[in-house]
Amino acid sequence: AADEKQPHRDECRQREGGIGYLLAWGIYAISPQSFDDNIDALRKFNLGFLYLAVWVAVRIPDILQVFVAVQRREAKVPNPDQYIYKTMHLEAPYVRLEKQGEVGKFNKAQRAIDNLRETFPGVLANLLLGGFAFPLPALVAVGLFLIGRVLFSIGYIWWTTLPGNIIGRIGSATLSGCVLFAGVHAF
Fold it and tell me: What share of the chain is helix, strand, coil (3-state, %, to 5)?
C-alpha cells in the first residue's frame, strides 16, 4: 500500500541538490560547447547570484517541512492524513481521513496532487532558469518529472509511490542541478 515504509521524502529532497549538481555536471561534460555560450551569457549579465538565490529559495519549503515531519512522527500521524480533527464531545475519538475504499482512493488522489502543489513552484523556477542554460536537458528532465508524477499519483491510490517518486525526483534533481551548475559557473 502507499503507506509502506519508504525513504522519507524530506531526506530524499535533501540529497537532491548534490545529486542534481552531479547530473548537470555529467550533462555538461558530454558536450560543454553546447552550453558554454548560455553560461557565458549568465556571466555577462552577472546572473550567477540570481541562479543561486533561486536554488536556495526553492529549498525553503523543504526546510520548513522538517518541522512537519518531526511532529508527524511524534504524533504518529501517517500519510495521507494532513490534520487530525477532534470532535467537540467529551471523550470522543479523533476523526481521521478515510484510507480504504473509494473515499480512501479519493483522499490519496487528493494528497498526491497536494504533493505536486508543494513542490511545483520550485520545479517551475528551476525549469525556467535551468532551461536557459540547458534547454534540451531541461525538456528531458521535465518529461521525467511528468512521468514520475503520473506514476506517483497512480501509485498513491493503488499500490506504491516509490517508482514514480524515483523517476520524478531524477527529473526535478536534474533541473535543480542545472540551476546550481549554471549559477556556480556563471562567476
Answer: 75, 0, 20
| SS3 call for 23 | helix
The Cα 168–Cα 37 span in angstroms is 29
Instruction: Confirm if 129 and 51 have CB atoms less than 8 A apart.
Output: yes
Name the pLDDT band for 14 (thresholds 50, 70, 90). Answer: low
How far from each other are the two terminal CA atoms of the chain, in whole angstroms? 47
Residues sharing a CB contact under 8 Å with residue 105, sequence separation 6 or more, in sequence order = 157, 158
Answer yes or no: are the C-beta atoms of 184 and 52 closer than 8 Å. Answer: yes
Quick: pLDDT tens for 146-166: 999 999 998 988 889 899 999
Q: pTM of the entire structure?
A: 0.68
The answer on pLDDT for 2 being more than 50 is no
Of 120, 50, 114, nearest to 82 (Cα)? 114
